[in-house]
Write a structure and sequence with these properties.
There is one protein chain. The protein has 10 helices and 15 strands. It has about 300 residues and is of the alpha/beta class. The strands form 4 sheets. A 5-stranded mixed sheet has the order 3-2-1-4-8. Strand 2 and strand 3 form a beta hairpin. Helix 3 crosses helix 10, helix 5 crosses helix 7 and helix 7 crosses helix 9. The longest helix is centred in the last third of the chain and has 25 residues. The chain is globular and about 55 Å long.
Length: about 300
């Protein structure tokens, strides 16, 4: 179905903490939105029922919706819309989400990795506009990478999502994504507390929250400052590796760039420039420009790309 000027698009943002159903336009305007807690411990069945109910309600109210886009964490087979056991979604083991939603809602459905969806949204409407080769790093609950080349999402063989968080980063460190010392263990926003408990076990018997660490860092606490430093430099090193490998036009940083601000971003840039090849080090590293709208628009843009 070819979109018309007044066509609308339904985006579903599925996460371990919250889910949202969003109606948007092709130019990135949000028309309607409904969100609710994921309660992911229940497994996929109840969550999918809620997604279908929320979607059906919005479709009944907005007759010009012509396609559905889904943004969800990996691993997944985006080509076939099959979810492959994301660590934050208990029981989502080989779930044929695309086909299930299509059968229930009777509209074209496309499923994409959340980092890839965010990257495409930033290319369409944000910090990657006008760029041909863009990398987006989530820097949030997990640490995912999305790549858009010439306006198209890059996927791995068999439609598989890119899973940089699982890569080995250090031989020692906290555990994330089932691996000690992984990229996610050092770079994800949600891993800050794990880093603190690993680095300073005498002070933190159990991991503090990321918010607690950020508050301590802003107050000048030396141990919290070291944790933020370790994290930012780890992100900068990952940026350098990706930059040297892929030579992007720009790299975009997600959640922590917003929550921790320009001081954190400058630490990432400093480490990137120190580690990358000289002709890579001039690649701009920017915070995501879409701010609080990014998660919603990441799902909507997949629906737009489907039509």
């Amino acid at each position: 179905m070819m979109p018309t000027d007044n066509a609308l698009f339904l985006g579903l943002d599925i996460g371990g903490t919250k889910c949202a159903a969003v109606v948007g336009s092709a130019d990135g305007k949000i028309i309607a939105r409904n969100s609710w807690p994921s309660n992911a411990n229940r497994g996929p069945g109840p969550m999918i029922e809620e997604l279908c109910a929320a979607s059906a309600e919005l479709i009944s109210k907005h007759s010009k919706i012509i396609s559905i886009g889904v943004s969800i964490g990996g691993p997944l087979d985006a080509e076939n819309g099959i979810i492959l056991s994301p660590p934050n979604l208990q029981g989502w083991n080989h779930i044929p989400l695309r086909d299930t939603l299509h059968q229930r809602l009777h509209l074209p459905v496309r499923v994409e990795h959340d980092a890839a969806a965010c990257c495409l949204a930033e290319v369409r409407w944000g910090a990657g506009a006008g760029k041909s080769r863009v990398i987006y790093l989530t820097c949030g609950t997990g640490f995912g990478a999305g790549i858009v080349l010439n306006g198209e999402i890059y996927r791995g063989a068999g439609g598989k999502s890119l899973e940089i968080g699982h890569a080995r980063f250090r031989e020692e460190g906290p555990e994330a994504f089932g691996k000690i010392g992984s990229v996610e263990a050092f770079c994800a926003g949600a891993s800050l507390g794990k880093l603190a408990a690993w680095k300073f076990p005498a002070r933190w018997k159990s991991p503090p929250t990321s918010e607690e660490l950020a508050t301590l860092w802003r107050s000048g606490d030396p141990e919290a400052t070291e944790i933020i430093y370790i994290n930012a430099h780890a992100v900068g090193e990952v940026c350098a590796n990706l930059g040297d490998l892929l030579r992007p036009d720009t790299m975009i940083l997600g959640s922590m760039a917003t929550h921790l601000g320009e001081t954190w971003v400058e630490m990432v840039r400093s480490r990137f420039k120190a580690e990358a090849l000289p002709d890579t080090a001039d690649c701009p590293i920017r915070p995501a420009a879409l701010g609080s709208r990014l998660q919603d628009l990441s799902a909507v843009v997949i629906a737009v790309a489907t039509a």
